[in-house]
Amino acid sequence: MNLYPLLRPLLFSLDPETAHHVTLSALNAVEKIGLSKLVYPEVAEQPIKVMGLEFKNQVGLAAGLDKNGDYIDALAALGFGFIEIGTVTPRPQPGNPKPRLFRLPEYQAIINRMGFNNLGVEHLLTQVKQSHYSGILGINIGKNFDTPIEQASEDYLIGLRKAYPFASYITINISSPNTKNLRQLQQGDEIKTLLSLLKDEQVKLQQQHNKYVPLVLKIAPDLTGDEISHISTLLLEFEIDGVIATNTTIARDKIADHPLAQEAGGLSGAPVKEAATAVVRGLAAELNGRCAIIAAGGILSAADAQEKIQAGASLVQIYSGLIYQGPQLVADIGRELSKGH
What we know:
The protein has helices spanning 4-12, 16-32, 36-39, 72-76, 121-130, 152-163, 188-209, 225-237, 273-287, 302-311, 320-325, 328-339; strands spanning 48-50, 53-55, 59-61, 82-88, 101-104, 109-112, 136-141, 169-173, 215-219, 242-245, 266-269, 292-296, 315-318. By secondary structure, it is of the alpha/beta class. Strands 3-4-7-8-9-10-12-13 form an eight-stranded parallel β-barrel, surrounded by five helices. A three-stranded antiparallel sheet has the order 5-6-11, with no helix packed on it. Strands 1-2 form a two-stranded antiparallel ribbon. Helix 7 packs parallel to helix 8 and helix 10 (302-311) crosses helix 12. The longest helix has 22 residues, at 188-209.
C-alpha cells in the first residue's frame, strides 16, 4: 500500500524543515501504534557481511535525517539494513540560521546548509539507549562549529570515545560543506594526523570495551583524482574499515538555471549521482576490496543503487531519495539488490 505519492504534495506544500519534522513525527506515530507492517512494504532480507558486521540487507539510511537519534525505532520499521544517525557534535549547537533547507523538485534535489544542528552527543546516546533497535547502527560524528580547525581532532576524539560503546560503526564526517573549513581536513597532512589519532584511539577503546567498532570516513564528491588516490592510500595505511562516498556537493553545474542555484550549502539528490558514482569507482580501483565502500548520493531508484554496487560499493545509503520516493524505495532497492546474490 504505497500512500506516499498521495502524501507527498501535502508535505511539499510545507516549508522543508517543517515537513521533515511532520514526517518523522508521523513515522513515530505509525511505529508506536504498531501499524508499520500494514503501512510499509516488506523489504527483502539478504544478509551480507561487511566490515565484520552482519547487515540484514544492503540498504541503509544516510546520516542527517535523524541527527539526534530521536526516531531510530520509527526509521527501523521502514526495513533498512542499517541506520546511521548524526552528525552529532560534542556540545549542542543550533546550526545555521533559517531558511537552510531547500527543495528543487524539478531536479529531485535538495540544498541544505543545516550546519550540524544537533542536541549534542549526550542527548543522542540517551536516545540510543532507549531505542529497541537491534540492527546495525552507525553514529556519525563531527566537530562543533566554534572549535578551531587546528583543534578539530579533539572533538572527533570526544565523539569517538562517547559513541564507541553504543555504535555498530562510527563515521568520521570531514566532508560537510556547511561547517567552515571542515573540508580542509580531507587534504594533505591534516587527514593523516586525524586518521592516525583516531586509529590509535580505536585500538585503546577496543581493549577497554572488549569489542571492535569499525571506523568509517565520509568524503566529498568534489575531490580530484589525486585527492581520491591520497585518501585511499591513507585508508589502507591506517586500516580504516570503510569509506562513505559521498557527502553533498558544492558544485552547481547540474542545476545552473534553477533560481535556487545560488543558495549556499550542499546539493544532494539526482544532480550528485554521477560525481558520487565516479568517486566510488575511483576508490574501488585504488582499494581493491581492502576497505569497504558505502555508496551514497543520487540514489533515487533501484537501478541507481545497482549502479553503485556495480561501481564497487558493498552497501548503499539513501536520504534525498527517501524524501522524493518514500518508503517504497527501500523495498525496491532491497528487491533489486537481492537478485544479485
